[in-house]
Fold each of these.
Amino acid sequence: MINYVYLVPLFPLIGFLINGIFWNKMPKTLAGLIGSGTILASFAVSLGIFFEVKSATFQGPVIVTLFDFIQSGKLNIPFAFQVDALSALFLLIITGVGFLIHVYSTSYMHHDEGMVKYFAYLNLFVFSMLLLILGANYLIMFIGWEGVGLCSYLLIGFWFKNRDYTNAAKKAFVMNRIGDLGFLVGMLLVLYYFGTLSYKDFFGQLSAAPANMSSVYGWIALCFFIGATGKSAQIPLYTWLPDAMAGPTPVSALIHAATMVTAGIYMIARSNVLYSLAPGTLHIVAIIGLATAILAATIAIRQYDIKKVLAYSTVSQLGFMFLALGVGAYTTAVFHVMTHAFFKALLFLGSGSVIHAMGGEQDIRKMGGLGRHMRITQLTFLVGCLAISGIPGLSGFFSKDAILTAAYAHDPILYFLGVVAAMMTAFYMFRLYYLTFTGGFRGTEDQHHHLHESPAAMTMPLVVLALLSIVGGYVGMPEVFSEHNLFDEYLKPVVTNFGEHHLAAGTEWMLMGISVAVSVVMIMVAFTMFRKPSFSPSTGLAKLLENKWYVDELYDSAIVRPIQSLSALLDRFVERMGIDGIVNGVGKTVKWGGDRLRLLQSGQVGFYIFIMVIGMVALFTISFFWVH
């Protein structure tokens, strides 16, 4: 099955081409079937590959070369895919969760006039992410990396008639280009110092490289991390992700759960050999990740747009993943990627179900009591909230606890700050749950009249994701529960953790108890505060949080406006008065001279003879003086 790995990205590419070419003729139902069917086919192949990789007879990684891509002198970069434990796992996450989102979209987008084009973009998005995951070298990864950036632009600005939505799409595109420049510089450094972009050759050279190359490792790792901060929305390049809520809700689920934002985590986990040789960069990764987790959590506490709360939640959870990467717990970060994909896709699709029932309303202040009308959505959303809050027995508990444990083993301060972020997570998620599903309805009478549960095409993916959010964490149970951590053992041939993360059983139980206790307390606090909510204008710190610490305004004042002012000056004095002035001046001078010279053509023969005589005299005079 591994030899047919090219079919995994090929199926969604075919779906994109069919729906893209015939977008104005294709029936909506058929477009949904093609879009969803191609992802299901990819999932089936991915499942076969996963079980083959998991088998005892697998000797990996396996490189499947399709054709020579770039060949110049000694440089040879093939268009090749690498199949191993890490790529096989991500294939399942992307195609499995992606398929559920496609099925959900067949109902959610059915009344949209651009549904066929939407499915074409969605298929292209999945294709790009699969290319990113499967690439056997950094160049193929970079092609997929840029592909998901393009698709995010197309899908965030899908409803392009709304200027705010197109601005959000442009913001995502530009901020990702900033990060991508860092990734590109890192690739060039790898090519310059090691002469290859292949994972196998590069990591092999790292193992044998001299110790005096440590500064080079650090710079390459730092450049790669800059790329990751863009794709995976970390400080300072995180502000595009909350604005990405402008796109259709299933797009938000795909971006936040299964594709784009996980790219940075994957890239660092894939490059774990490099990062283990650059401990200074790892420390930066941990600090940035923890700071992002806390900052985003504080903002989520005071947001009222249901999707914005979930967006800042994603930024915060990504911060947890980078914290795990920064302390060298690479497999733990990947584990949280998997569990987060389950419950975050569930939460976003659940919010889409709510928005669908509310006729497009996203303000949770105008909701309340929806649980009585949307029982399936309420129960599945509750599962997602419990999972992300780290309640025992659900997937988020195992992955969050593993991150906090690794942080404690590295530095107890990181653990306690991580617990603070986890406390806020439980608070803002249950604030969202209580304001949306409990209490009395606060919307209009017309909205109340039309409240209803979503159709089966939307609720069935919710049920499946809720089940995965419950059982998905048991493959990574820590050693205090099981003799072996199956998830770590599965990834061990590809991903080697850096540093020692084992603690005494008593210490682990204590750490788990602290994190669970504070989460439960925060859930109770949220219940007390929001079972009978009252809303008043924000002041002081609350206003600061509601306005997202004014980071966007700071960026606008410190970066955007100065650049716009500089651009205006360059436009006026360099472009118009300088370059245009010179070009236009030459043209005007030639035209002026021509206008004057044409007057010599009077049509009078006597005048022409006079000019000839004058010319001859002039020539004789010049010749006389030249000779003498």
Note: The first strand starts at residue 62 and ends at 72.
Amino acid sequence: MAQLIECVPNFSEGRDAAVLDAIADAVRSTDGVTLLDVDPGRATNRTVFTFVGEPAPVIEAAVSAARVGAQLIDMSQHSGEHPRFGGMDVCPLVPVSGITMEETVQHARELARRLGEDVGLTIFCYENAATRPERRNLAVVREGEYEALPERLASEEWKPDFGPAEFQPRTGATAVGARDFLVAYNVNLNTTSTRRANAIAFDVREKGRIRREPDPLTGEVVRDANGEPVWTPGLLEACKGIGWFIEEYGVAQISMNLTDLGVTPVHAAFDACVERAGARGIRVTGSEIVGLVPLAVLLDAGRHYLARQGRSVGVSDAELIKIAVRTMGLDELSPFDPAKRVIEYAIRDTSKKRLVDMTLEAFTHETASESPAPGGGSIAALAGAVGAALGTMVANLSSHKRGWDERWEEFSRVAEAGKLCHDRMLSLIDEDTEAFNRIMAAWRADESVRAERIDAATRYAIEVPLEVMEVALDAMGICEEMARIGMEASLSDAAVGGLCLRTATLGAGLNVRINAKDLKDEEARTAYLARAAELEGEAIRREEALTASVRARLG
């Protein structure tokens, strides 16, 4: 899985379209990066850019954007409603998929170093990337804003992490951080009352409301020993919220910022609003996610609501997304198109022809054509995907069988494992073709690097079918378990799945052998062939035992 991070730089310019276009062009011109959004604000005189990609190109795009911003934005002439202290005011990196926060922190600090050394910006690291505990909070780092920088930078306490320690009148200072993904999320109510929406927001947000006694609405404010009001926390951690009225739609909403999805996911916020609204005689009618979200947000929500129904969660991503959208009413105010609203889908290169996107008929015709790919390797992966899908199907059907309601979790766990197998097999269909393309490209490379590239491409062309074999045997376990405990009416499906997985393993094994003969490293070739033979033998043994057990049960 590719590592994806999001970069959300905020520039102190929201009125000059030429400046914003130049910054956007700097991002767009960086290979491997997709610019998702440019959100300018005239009153704040500030623009939020959002782009995503793998870490290296994202860092490059951020440096390019910063360089343009430093040339075109003069902070000594800036005014606006939003707190700020630099031309590129803040630049957080956010892990999206396939990457940990710890890894994102390292990339943020590398970005901070590049901005300081290559662009000449004064850099402070904040949030998870902070080098000192007292600098984690952005408000603390930016205290006093641009106007306070000359005095702050003169003190040893506020020596920057990277870049010039002297005040830079034109560029000011920049805060570079690593933070969790923040979702702006609004829940729609069947009321026009901002006061009632606020009451629900106070119920759910982490900050809660000021405590009053004896009556929580009209009583006296409770104060601590220092005379400060005492607050009663709300239901949800990592949640900020208020109530407001949206004239465009004629409804009140609970508007929330969810700042740590690992603590409070979107579906938990929705459920809490439903519960508290109901307690106040108000009904939640739907909700909306502002901007784009990682795929995991919707998949987690879909699993949550299927589990509440006692249904297997080992279904397709498309089905999980559909359940999430319908349950939370994400399309009530406007259509919710996953292709445009899910980050991983929005950045997908649709110009690249993928085998898995073809119809079954088109795939078979492409296989039968004069083109050398797809070939046996892709077909082996396809057989593995179908075999894993059959085992998953039996698990899903068994979880829904009348009289087995209490066993749905048992079968759901099996179906989830099966889904992981057939999802991975689907990606290996195209990876096998990519392996062929790499070998062809290596042979066309310059003579000075040709041998090295041929060796690397050959190893990749061996390792892809080896993974097909390994995943096929993982999926064989799904079919074996379903043949043992699954519903009797689907025994033959589990057995056919096993046969497909045997074919996948043996077919991929032949691919390992034909590619391994071109490997110059004899020790590596021997190891690859030995591993393939081991997997082939296991596949034959397990499939024969599976088929025999099914035949015995069927009589």
Note: The first strand starts at residue 4 and ends at 7.
Amino acid sequence: MAYKLEKRKGFDRYQQIVEQSPVAICIQHGDKIVFINAAGLKFFGAKNQEQIIGRSITEFVGLNYRQFLDRQFQEVIEEGKAIAPFEEKLIRMDGNELYVEMEATPFHYNGKPAVQIVFRDLTIRNEIRELLFQSKHDWADTFNNITDMITIHDKDFNIIHANKAAKKILNLPLLEESIKKIKCFKYYHGTGGPPEGCPSCDCLKTGIPANFEIYEPHLNMFIEIRAMPRFDSNNQLIGLIHICRDVTERKRVEAELKKAKDELEIRVEQRTSELKITNKQLREEITERKRAEMALRESEGKFRNLSQQFNVLLNAIPDSLLLLSPDLKIRWANKAAYFEFNKENPDLADQYCYSLCCNLTSPCDDCPAIKSFISGKEEATQILGSEGRFWDIRAFPMRNEDNIIENVIEVARDISEKVKLQAETMRTRHLASLGELAAGVAHEINNPINNILNYAQILIDEFDKENGGNDNIASRIVKDADRIATIVRSLLSFARVKKEEKNFINLKEILSDTLALTTAQILKEGILLKIDIPSDLPEIIANPQEIQQVFLNIISNSRFFLNKKYIGSHKDKVLEISSEKATIDNNRFIQITFYDQGTGIPANILDKVVNPFFTTKPSGLGTGLGLSISHRIISDHGGRLIVDSVEGGFTRVIVLLPIK
């Protein structure tokens, strides 16, 4: 302790001031700290001076900075002058790091050169710096994302900042630095100097905000402008903020409204004049009441005749017509509706339409009449009614003089025949697919038949030998005969006309039956077939004939475009068929993927390939119904058909069928 007191004699006079200073101060003599005040102890996280006195400042910084710190202190001692403050990372007694600013000045201790070091905590300053940086970044994003044109000017009419909207509309340079020193009137007004009487220019001179609208021929638009002055910390005018909005469309609408208003006023004046004349005529015609009454009776008779003709016309329409109230009660119906909905009771009035049509106690889920009451527009839907009949139902709102929808006319048309024709179209495509398979099936059947004939001839030749017939040859005959039976059975199952019933089916078996019909032709064309179908796929509820038709159509398309791209065999002439379970929107599906590297489908027609009668095949080679029918079949099964393709690259067709 005597050593420390002796060291302090050089500054006893200022000891109390330094000790109580809120600034952290220490003195280093040589490479030892000989003094540190209370603020310094708190700064280093030390409990008493014994933890600091006798150590070097360099012990409290990282290894990489110790030589730098020694050089700084040596420079202070040798040159006898303070060095510029510098930032350093300080390691406190508890091991935590603290960013500080250190200022070293020369000091004499016991008549010998020493270094006085003052520490300042930079934590708050760094936080403020980061906050300012983030605020500037957020301001820039907000500034650029505002759709109005915003420019910031200095007092000399120069644009110093502009957001994206201003750069685009005013055709300003995109780079921020290129905007500096650009005169605002050149881009706003297309003039070489401030225009006379410009409120924005007056705001820049007077500091008074301005709000106005102006038409700028230079930009060919009406602009709504708000000019706000900018002041510095001394309340001195330093420029303005210019916020502009394109109001051309609004001005056009206002002009049209004004024109309409003027025309309406003219019409009102004309109508008023006409009413005056009419009133005069009415006064003159009071004496002719009897003649007027007679004319009225004649008009009523004509109206009655017209009403009868109108009713005859509506009753002659074969579609069912109903006039419905907001609560879906029938107010009027034509004869076709009476015939369809209530043959025995001729009075349909005040009955609910959903009770007559669908035998329900509440409105249908997709009721077009309710939709029409809500939307005020024509609405339509299709439903399956009793006796398996399909109906196309359309609803048309009827408004009163106050433009309020009072009733809805519902028109119902029987489209059962149309639906039947669509089903026939699908069947026609089914048979067309069967014809396409004929060549492959014939090839597959001919080879086994030839083998049977050859093996049979061998049996005949061997008949007279001592050992009798050859069992191995006989087993080959049975094997090829079973092969023929399998192919023919699959073909007959595909071609047989059945009711469109849905049962539990195994997709792997359906795909196997499909490939039995097509594999021979695929291999003959040099296409490599890769199959990856797990055996543990769950069964689904579907119509096997329709699903087989979809698979055949997709495989046929892949064959066509692979053969179009590759003549003969090729390592990339591959058709890959895979399957897996998938979950989409919490619904479970079986996903079957058909992938080939054929010619692909151009991007501009990819969304049209499922449209009826649209085909990418040459004329005469495709009907354009295949994918359309396939898409409809999968949709009827509650699934999805997705086509993804890149022209010249690949085509991927994904079939999703729900797991019940």
Note: The chain has four domains: 2-121, 128-246, 318-414, 421-658.
Amino acid sequence: MKIIECVPNFSEGRDKQVIARIADAISAVEGVKLLNVDPGVATNRTVMTFAGAPDAITEAAFQAIKTAAGCIDMRRHHGEHPRIGATDVCPLIPVTGVTMEETVQYARDLARRVGEELGIPVYCYEEAAFTDKRKNLAVCRVGEYEGLQAKFKDPEWKPDFGPAEFSDKVATSGLTVIGARDFLIAVNFNLNTTSVRRANAVSFDVREKGRKVITDGKETWQPGTLRHCKAIGWFIKEYGIAQVSMNLTNIQVTPLHVAFDEVCDKAARRGMRVTGTELVGLVPKQALTEAGKYFLQKQQRSLGLPEEEIIRIAIKSMGLDDLGPFDPKTKILEYLLEDETSDKSLCALTCREFALETASESPAPGGGSVAAYMGALGASLGTMVANLSSQKRGWDEKWEYFSRWAEKGQALLAELLHLVDEDTLSYNKVMEAFSLPRYNQAEKSKRTEAIEQATLYAAQVPLTTIKTSLRVYDILEAMIEEGNPNSVTDAGVGVQAILAAVKGGYLNVLINVSGLKDQEKAASLKEEAQKILKLAKERENDLWKKITLKINK
């Protein structure tokens, strides 16, 4: 599935009716999900984020730009943030299944349409720029809206698309900058000062561009310490503080937590302190999980914690809730893009609800899902022992060893929880295939093939369950031998849960391959499952001896 994200910035952050009109124009396009609307009163600017299939996204972006031009008059606009048009900037960002090259073409097609159909001048920036000079958004924005008329007189700044004359219509709409770029994090670091000058000094210390200096009587630029970083200092009356406002344009090179630490260091050198962090718009989950693990590592704590706990550590470490509540469900891109049916998954049920659902008259969830869940419980127990061992008094030098095992455990746990739902879905696919029509020979052939493919998949899911469950034994064995001796029985229960998962998954492989017409494939899957079962029994027997020996010492 191809997914593109769009994060346009509109020059209105105070009039709720105008903001709602633009948001409604986006939401009205089928196939688009409006993920976030983030208005700023002081900046008089609203950042909206939406995602979906490329064609739907470009249509939604066009309608949003059209709506903004119809209800925002740039002649009357004032705000703290630099801006050049009613829709100031409109970047397209590849998320899944789309290359940057494809995204560039989508951006240029959108820019051409905005210029030709709406009569709004457009510059293309970042990867969609036609010249290196226009890659940088800040350069495209030089002079802001007030300098636009003079800018049009310079041939070098003729719009890429749309009119080059400063007509009454252009005077109202301003210019729009459209482009394609990698994921950008917009973030403000809160300082315990009201001084814009001092906030700017910190921003000059860290931003890649740096600051102007005089060397041997010549004016030159002294680079800052962070690559792919743009930053300025400003005062936000709404909060009564100065901030270092930053754009991180390549978070693989300069992650969020690295920028946070660097601003903290440079602020401290100037007698200030970072009191918290304000994220503008959405953030990829990776940015917060990497940050959480970074701060956990500094504390010499296990990194093999649940994702929610790691994100909570990131929030508290960087003060993301300093100016107001920070809800990961509304700020993390992946959470907002999750299928709306995810809350109906088996893994979203409580233990009691899962048991009752299994005990109902419905044939699914059944043994396959329960087998995967037992495997998940085995992985959970092994991971728990690893995390407890990493915190054992007197074992401080071993924390990294146990942390690595806990991380492996979390990864296997996630795979097995996925298989809990996947097994039920595979059963449903088989039922759907059997329900296909068979009124003529073509339909019968199609139905037969669909049943074969669905049955094959239904056999492969429990096979994956037993393969994944077997890998948990490595964690449990390490915990039995090296983990906290007080938790050896927890690991022992995990061993039994894994054996049950493998046996249960094996039974499901057998019943499903019996329905395959391809006997050679059926025999191959059955043989592979038998080998895994034999190995699981051998490992369980060996680990049981080690557990009882340790208990009886």
Note: The two ends are 57 Å apart (CA to CA).
